[in-house]
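Take a specimen:
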Amino acid sequence: ASKTKDGELYSRVAAAFQAVNKSARAVADMPFVIYKGDAIVDDSNNWQNYVKFMPNPRDLLRRIRHSLIMTNTAYLRMGKNAANRPKKLNYTIPTSIKVKTDEITGEIVRFDRIVNNQVVQTFKPDDPDLIRFWWLDAQTELLPSPDTEFKSIMGAAGILFYSDYFTENFYRRGGVKPTLIAMKGMVMGDKKEEMQKDWTSWVRGIGKFASNITAKIFNAETMDIKPFGEGLGDLKDTPVYKQALENIAIGMDMPLSLLLSNSANRATADTEYIQWFRNSVTPWCNFIADALNEQLFTKMGLQMQFTPENTDPEQDDETKGRVLNSLADALGKYPDADTFLGAADSIGVELNDDFVEAVKRHYAKKEAKPEPAPIDVQPAPVVED
């Protein structure tokens, strides 16, 4: 992975690509509102572009999060019209912004925007036309940390990259393992090179023209073909390969089942998605909102606030609580397990296997419980006067 560029690992390794983009899209899909005082003046679910310079906020949010994953840095640049009024807030590539700091104090002096190796625009440290998103950690005081989320998964992505590279080349040579040719007696240099070239051409031909090549004849008395190394199945099924997938999910703070889309059932998938939203997506949304409010919206008398409580995962969680209470009530109303399960199925309520078994055990215990013996009530004695 050390010899492979970040962009190549990102674009060529499917797990890394999806982990990064799922995280970015989740932030983009998080609903938000714009407040002016206590009044909501715009809502992402019915966006009216009240501020006039954000026609597509979801695209900006997605690219901000994507940039933070890759570089711990993101920039938005305010475009102006002829009257020097805000026209459109544009995403700006982080590598195009060069930070100039004072050599003595280390404080930021200015930001230079570089295009074709030339400075085309300069911004002061507090310039409202350049909004920055910098993720700092315990090792940094002023500038963004070099330790990014993507760097944390590069080792694992490298394993998958070279595994896929090996797989591609394995099939290119017709599914033939690397081969040693053992020849008896002294082999002259020109003869050795001729045999190597001949054998290599034939092996490569297997991958390109497999339907036309059926066999290679050689003298078994003088030559022995010995394959070495692992085959494709040996490589793909190793714990190392599986661990690499898990490390990518861990590095991106994402459930592995969400990355692979292989949850055991719908209930498990929903639970994992909700936890991911709460523990990873929402905090990053808050980080982005804080930067936008501090550098842009507050100066305009506005406030941006994400509303995770309005997302499907959050609403699903509340709905499940109500459904669970309803199911508990239903257990007391239906006479047996078959009737209860049939009723649930008829209204489209999906119950996992564990819950079905629990329902059956509940009714089995209920049926096995003996009815209390009737109490023999004796009439009260009549007292005569």
